[in-house]
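User: structure tokens for this one?
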Amino acid sequence: FLPVNPVPIVDAGMDKLIQTGTSIPMTASVTPSSLYNLLWTPAAGLTSATALNPLASPSVTTTYSVTVTDT
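Assistant:
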């Protein structure tokens, strides 16, 4: 028996601009969240690369993306 998880619904949130020296929460959502792992890339400037909503404070212009995988 091989369990099959439902296809996740992923939203990485709206694009955001961050001024140098400040932080802003990244706001992603995954439904159903308990079945999946997240990975934000690049990890530089984030409080956590695996959190749903890490704080971002990059020192240079950065485009972040989030990848969702089965647990």
